[in-house]
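Standup notes
- HV: blocked on the assembly model, inputs below
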Amino acid sequence: MDNSGLLVQVSSGLERMMYANQSGPLKDSTVAQISAFVYYEAAVISKLTTNKQFQNAFTKVMFDQINLDFGNYIDALARSRPKSLHHVYEWKKTGNKTARLFKLNKLSAEGLSFRIDYDLLPSTSMVPSANGRRRHVFANKASIMEAGKPLVIRPKNSERLVFEADGETVFMPKGMPVTVKRPGGSAATNQFNLAHSRFFSGRLVNESIKRSGFQKIFNSSMTKALRVPSNIKKVQYSFSANAIRSQADAALTASFGGVM
Amino acid sequence: MTANYKLDAMIELRKYLWKELHTRNIFDEDDYWSDNLNENIIPIIPVQQSAEMNQFLSGKKHIVYDKIGMSYEDNWLICCEQILFTIYSTDISEINEIRNYMTDEFRRVDESARSINKWTGLSDKFKFHAVYIADISPTAPSEELQGFFAAEVILEIKYSRITDGQGRFL
């Protein structure tokens, strides 16, 4: 049983203490009030990890920072090693934040956990051409170059392929395709995946989590949610367990429902 | 008074790193004498200038740096930056030497910052609070510069710029 489940179980024992007419040697408003106080705090804490607003706020603040730091990390690496990472940017824009062809995704998981994967996005810019005629978009540039898949180029709009190689114009026989063994160069193969692994398996992701300021959620919002409602502060001989649980729900929603 | 916005903590760190590297004889300044400029070139260069320097640095060990990102903490006086250093050399042992020096120098968090603050060459407009190593890559053959090996060191620095009473840079 996780800690929150254990807390619910233990605090349920307080329910019968919150009524003035309970059996047993202790029968006064103080016992009822202390029980209500502890019951409320236990309810807030035990509901915390299952509270949707808290989960969303917690994972969002962390993911947003990781997303920002990872993007900046790949941009800087790409500027330093353009041959390795040019393929995850639009043509001639290696290391440019606005030309990225990768995107991190946050995948939901149980409780406060979440998983992160990435997508390589299709390119939308024209393939640069030495003769200035840009007519083609190599949509799957990033994923094909990352995988190092051989590429077969066939004539589509004309009867033969004509291209320049080493300053010479090459005319291919009619209908003949050209195979590019390592599009993007062998230096690019699997390099984004390696950089991604390095970021997420080393200290960089931990630094990013620390920087996210997720502690603020605990420092400010948790303090707010744990503030005991005024009715529990008043001297009473009985408290409703149902009402206290509802108040705990409402306090969590009020604390974590808004923008942090 | 107008602040000097050309000042940059990354450049201050680069100056400190170079001072340490040549006073410890890890680099020999005379290896980087430029007849054209009639002066020594510091072989720790920003990534934006690395293409122009390729010919001059051909076969010579050097370091290329770039800023990964910067942000301010809740306490907006403290700036946090990550700087990526890529060490290039044709000799793997030279890369190890530089990497080991950087590890020794910059792993000590506030003590590393204290060493920089004590250096008389540091601009009096900066105060470093912490420097530590965020990541070190293994050494591998460089894809960018044929014949070179390369390794990366990422430093995270926390510092303040000295400000006036309104919190503006001096």
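- HV (later): unblocked. The longest strand of chain B covers residues 149-161. The beta strands of chain B are 33-34, 39-40, 44-46, 62-72, 79-89, 126-136, 140-141, 149-161.
- Next: hand off to the docking folks.
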